[in-house]
Every structure is written in structure tokens, then in C-alpha cells.
Design a protein that fits this description.
The chain is about 80% helix and about 5% strand. It is mainly alpha-helical.
């Protein structure tokens, strides 16, 4: 009979989140830079790429915070998964950060769309 083990351990998940977040950051910056060059719309495309790229470091930071809050410390007996305040803080962070990203992203894309509409109107006048 074999010992039961976890399918995926915490180190694997930790590495995947860190690598994925860093890769997301680099890919978004590269795509933002490429679109900036192709569209010749410096600020708008670059800001959108930087905004999307910021999701990677944010996920890494939130994962590190979550890992710290839910850690198990055998010396002190601290176990974060059974604490109500840990659940409340995680829920509040999810709501606040998600709403902030949604609001800022919506404003950024709305401004970009209105600028494109103005450019299209100017192009039609010529």
C-alpha cells in the first residue's frame, strides 16, 4: 500500500504563480509596446499594456499575503485557515482590489475609445 500524498504541493503552486505573474507582466508589456508601435498611439496603448501588466505583480503580491495569512506555524500553533478575520480580510481585499481594477480599467478603455472616435471623426473631415 502506498502513502497518500498531495497531488500538487504548495511549493509547486507558489512557483507557478510567481512564474505566471512574471511572464504575464513581460508579455503584456511586449504586446503593449508592439501595439503602440503599430498603431502609432503612444500613450493610450502603452498605458493599457502597463495596466494589464500590473495584474501579474498584483497577483504575486496577493498570493504572498494570502500565503502568510493562512500559514501554519507549529512553534506557535498559528493556523490561519481557521480564523474568521483571515476570511474577512481576504474577501475585503478581493472586493476592493477587483473593484479598483475594474473602475480604473473601465476609465482607461473608455478614454481610449473616445480618443479613437475623435481621431476617426477628424480623419473623415479631411
Amino acid at each position: 500500500m502506498t502513502d497518500m500524498r498531495e497531488i500538487v504541493d504548495i511549493r509547486t503552486v507558489d512557483a507557478a504563480i510567481k512564474i505566471g505573474g512574471a511572464a504575464w507582466f513581460v508579455v503584456c508589456l511586449l504586446i503593449g509596446g508592439l501595439l503602440t508601435a503599430l498603431r502609432r498611439r503612444g500613450a493610450a496603448s502603452l498605458l493599457q499594456g502597463a495596466f494589464l501588466a500590473s495584474v501579474g505583480p498584483a497577483v504575486i503580491g496577493l498570493w504572498l499575503l494570502y500565503s502568510w495569512m493562512t500559514r501554519y506555524d507549529p512553534q506557535t500553533g498559528y493556523y490561519g485557515l481557521d480564523k474568521v478575520w483571515v476570511l474577512a480580510v481576504n474577501a475585503a481585499l478581493f472586493i476592493v482590489i477587483g473593484a479598483a481594477y475594474g473602475y480604473l480599467g473601465g476609465r482607461l478603455w473608455a478614454r481610449h475609445a473616445s480618443q479613437e472616435a475623435l481621431d476617426a471623426t477628424d480623419a473623415n473631415r479631411v
